[in-house]
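Entry 12.
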Amino acid sequence: MAICIKCGKENESCLCDSCRAVTSLEVLCQELTAYRPYSGANPIWEKLCSEFNSPYNLRNLVFAVSDDLPTPRKEYQRVMAITGASSNVPKDSRPWFYEIYESIKDSDGLTEAEKNRLHGIAVGAYYMDYDYFMADRIASLLCESDDIPWQACYNLAEFYTTTRRYDAAEEVIADALQRFAADSFVVQTMQNRMEKNTKQREKAKAGKQEYMPNPKENRDEARQKYIDFLAGIGIEAVMPKPGKKVPNAIPKDQYPDPVETRDTDFDTFVAFDLETTGRSPRYDSIIEIGAVRVVNGQVEEKAEFTFQELAKPFDRRLSEEIQQLTGITADEVRDAREMWEVFADFMKFAGNDVLLGFNCMAFDSRFMVRAGRYANIIIKNKYFDVMRYADQFKAQLDIDTKDVSLAKLSEKLEIENPRAHRALADAVTTARIFLKLKEMDGGTDRISVDDLLSDLDNW
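Predicted 3D structure (tokens):
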């Protein structure tokens, strides 16, 4: 049993007969489309929102409410519900939209502003589907009107910026800012659009690569359509040089999990550290690998015993936060080798030695798995996590569990790290911490790895 979305009573449809008799269906459609979930403005709708997979699915009720509206009012309200505040049609709904658009765009049942709103939506949909010529024909039609809604202005300006017509985009934005000066939300939205247009113009003046379509599928086809369109309006563009081909990665379910050792009876190992674009190995990328080989308990910082190389971020930009934290700039990694190439050389450097890191089981090893998958290299080395090892010495070092950090241990053990958050410096620091902890551990009974693994849940 459904409920009436006006009075909340149980009913066979979304409106009971009593409410339907006194309700403007068009106004109700508009209210459903504009409703902000969790605002608390309508308790009945809040309850419905909580029952949907997405609270914005409330808009889908427009399809039921509008069913009794005549054409083209019914179709127009449904388009507004699909696009919402963004004025963009979801990809899966575009074939449906194109059919509706062609059937009602010239209808006498729509005002000029409503027709222009549809035209603006169509501009966005067609150019996002790489049909630039169709988008341009509709854009030209829009520009003949003096009654362009701000949403259509936004899509129009975005289309002009995307197709490298920065002056035309600026004119559209300036017109919208003047006509909608009293609406602070529209003003801020259009000013943001102006900033993006200005940045793209500056890139063009600096001779940098301007916008180029980059879809996951049929990229060359989409780019050729873009280049052909630009040529048709007198703008020269060339196909970017093909980037390096991403290797076929070993499937996740076929790649072994990292193997940890808790024994400390080794004096020769490779201490390593990674710098990354973020904390998620699923989405972020290695940008630097640093390592030092320790031989018979001696940290060898000579060139032949160290490894340090930047890597180009894989499908991820280098944020300002990471640049400030590490000191690694976007310019530095732009021309670096690919992650899987750098990783392959690192594994040659590491050989069969234990890979010793700090918090490496929770962090670095997971990034190493991803790198190994793309490099098609199975990591057979065992990992030793100094952070877990240091947990045994909290009382001796007078530190709390939450303070078992590289910086805190360095301070407590009087180990200088002049370049924290750079991979090689952190790797050397990790090696020195491990060796000092082993000295402290020399007079205690050795705990077997079996005992440690049995207590794994307590770590």
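Annotation: The radius of gyration is 30 Å. The CA atoms of residues 190 and 298 lie 61 Å apart.
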